[in-house]
Amino acid sequence: VQLVESGGGLVHPGESLRLSCAASGFTFSSYGMRWYRQAPGKEREWVATITSPGDSTNYSDSVNGRFTISRDNAKNTVALQMNSVKPEDTAVYYCNAYVRGRTYWGQGTQVTVSS
Description:
Elements: E1 2-6, E2 9-11, E3 17-24, E4 33-38, E5 45-50, E6 57-59, E7 67-72, E8 77-82, E9 91-99, E10 102-105, E11 109-113
Parallel strand pairs: 2-11
Antiparallel strand pairs: 1-3, 3-8, 4-5, 4-9, 5-6, 7-8, 9-10, 9-11
């Protein structure tokens, strides 16, 4: 199983950013996917989940209404659209999959929100 995130960078408050995660090594369309984030000095926290067919999503209270998780099962990718970003969204963002009893993480992509 391999998860590779991309799309991070430096953005200003109120702007948008789209993260992507390319998955391989498992039957992507059969598994739910998640995004997590870890800010400096803080524990990793869950951000969003999408079901295997993509018909249901859930979000943490801190991003609900601003972020959107989506997936393309034909391309084995999961995305996180981040709108109206805030300085407190600054973190390393990780793609996550739970496959055959094991948890897998990508290497993470840094998102910095600063004016």
